[in-house]
Specification:
Elements (H helix, E strand, L loop, with lengths): L4 E11 L38 H13 L3 E2 L2 E2 L2 E4 L9 E4 L6 E2 L2 E5 L5 E13 L3 E4 L7 E4 L6 E7 L6 H17 L12 E12 L5 E3 L3 E6 L2 H22 L9 E6 L4 E7 L9 E2 L6 E2 L2 H8 L6 H12 L3 H8 L2 H10 L6 H19 L10 H12 L5 H14 L3 H7 L8 H14 L1 H8 L4 H13 L6 H11 L2
Parallel strand pairs: 14-15
Antiparallel strand pairs: 1-11, 1-12, 2-6, 3-18, 4-5, 4-17, 6-8, 7-8, 8-11, 9-10, 12-13, 12-14, 15-16
Helix pairs in contact: 1-4, 2-3, 5-6, 7-9, 9-10, 12-14, 12-15, 13-14, 14-15
């Protein structure tokens, strides 16, 4: 009998980075004084009429083109009716039966390394709700910040084609990459501009050769890739155990909503899931149907950049870097752009890629900053790599120069010249230092002769110390080995 396996579909809400909200002129920006970025329209005051932000429509078309979706010739808006404190109008403007985009796919590698399409059902426009803030001060008071209310969202709904938590994370990362490449969202999960709902059920094989499908759980508003993975893996175990206890199967009406408790790594029951009829969808009477012309679609096509997979392949072929380096660089559009700026000033492409992915990315991760906030220019990084590659400075000195570049904003050549850091290549000078080091470290000499290879590294370090990092490492190693014979 085969093992149980999950059926997973993801609904991803991405907040667009338009200057104003979806249907009013309020500023569309994260944070601010609570309830300072609101107006009668986004607060649903009587008599106020929404007006669609044209940028939202254009961004949605660009997104559809990027995912290979079919752009609707006619689209419309609908009211999704429900009552909750963060929804002042009592309804959300969304799209129901005529979404702006249908179809499309994202390509990922499955768990066996085979390319696989995760199909997209639809992409539609809707407005965001406010944000509930629960105080943990013993009062049990909750407050609502409506600044986010009316912010423009694109909801991307996948087909239930995902078969593991790893596939789900790969899909999400690819989705995020594409949204960032087309520059319509910053996809900052910490600020809530990318939120994920995971729909999960299990197929459990029975002894008679048939399979049953467990009731679907929708885990709402998961805010990180790691939590998506944890939530799915928890649900896989929970649903199998629940079936063996209750024998309940999916009947199309017993879907439930659960939340993810990241402090415990578990999902928790919230409510029975509403059906579409519970939302009482009906056409938004204050917004007309929209005709999407070929002219508008063609205009949107001009905004499409080189997409991640295409860039990945080009970086590998054009610069001769490894597939791993090309994949890692292209995962961040701004990082890959920085790499290509460096390549305008050097032909040492592999060394530049390595320097960015090790030394620079280490700093970005430690300081939690983006490459756009990194203080050293691409031209100066290329110059540093050139100095290292042509033997002007040693790798030891290069690290020191790099630190000084960050602190002083000086270019590497000026630092090398000002501090006399040119690599020591003179055989006589190097030999003098090597002889001195060997005479002062007899124990390490004996260790090396007794087969301890680490002793050579120690002696090499002593030469570097004596030469203040200037010794040519290749020549030094050769001289040490020759003298140790």
């Amino acid at each position: 009998m085969n093992k149980p396996y999950p059926i997973i579909g993801l609904e991803v809400h991405v907040q667009l980075k338009t200057k104003t909200k979806a249907f009013c002129r309020c500023e569309n920006k994260y944070g601010g004084i609570p309830n300072s970025r609101v107006c009668p329209v986004c607060m649903g005051m009587p008599g106020m009429l929404p007006v669609l932000n044209e940028s939202v429509l254009n961004d949605a078309i660009v997104a559809g083109l990027a995912f290979g979706s079919q752009i609707a010739s006619i689209t419309k808006f609908d009211r999704k009716n429900y009552s909750y404190p963060d929804l002042p109008k009592g309804y959300q403007i969304s799209q129901y039966d005529k979404p702006i985009c249908s179809g499309g796919f994202i390509e990922i590698e499955d768990d066996n390394g085979t390319l696989k399409h995760i199909n997209i059902t639809r992409i539609h426009i809707e407005e965001d709700a406010g944000k509930l803030i629960h105080l943990e001060d013993g009062t049990n008071n909750s407050y609502v910040d409506y600044n986010r209310c009316g912010a423009p969202l694109l909801e991307t709904v996948s087909e239930p084609d995902i078969r593991s938590s790893d596939e789900a994370v790969k899909y999400l990362k690819s989705l995020k990459e594409i949204f960032e490449y087309i520059e319509i969202s910053d996809c900052n999960m910490e600020e809530g501009s990318l939120r994920c709902d995971a729909n999960i059920s299990m197929m459990i094989p029975l002894s008679d050769g048939t399979e049953i499908n467990t009731p679907i759980s929708e885990v709402k508003n998961i805010n990180s890739f790691s939590n998506v993975k944890k939530a799915i893996e928890y649900e896989i175990i929970r649903q199998v155990e629940e079936y063996h206890k209750t024998k309940e199967v999916n009947n199309g009406k017993n879907k439930i909503t659960r939340g993810f408790d990241d402090s415990k790594g578990i999902t928790v029951f919230q409510r029975s899931k509403e059906g579409e009829s519970d939302y009482r969808y009906f056409p938004e009477p204050d917004l007309p149907h929209l005709e999407i012309t070929e002219e508008l679609i063609n205009k949107s096509k001009l905004r499409l950049p080189e997409l991640p997979q295409n860039k990945r392949n080009r970086l590998e072929n054009q610069y001769g870097i490894t597939q791993y380096d090309a994949t890692t660089l292209s995962a961040d559009k701004k990082l890959s752009d920085y790499f290509e700026k460096c390549c305008k000033y050097t032909t040492n492409y592999k060394k530049v890629a390595n320097f960015i992915l090790t030394d620079i990315c280490s700093i970005l991760n430690t300081e939690n900053i983006s490459i756009i906030d990194f203080s050293v220019s691409a031209e100066d990084i290329a110059q540093l790599v050139n100095l290292l590659s042509d033997g002007t400075i040693s790798s030891w000195i290069a690290k020191s120069v790099f630190e000084k570049m960050r602190l002083t904003n000086k270019n590497p050549l000026s630092i090398v010249e000002e501090e006399s850091l040119l690599q020591l290549n003179n055989d006589d000078e190097l030999d003098t230092i090597v002889i001195k080091v060997l005479s002062e470290n007899q124990k390490s000499v004996e260790d090396y002769k007794n087969g301890k290879d680490n002793a050579l590294k120690y002696l090499m370090g002593q030469v570097m110390k004596q030469s203040k990092g200037k010794a040519n490492p290749v020549k030094t190693t050769e001289m040490l080995i020759e003298r140790l014979k």
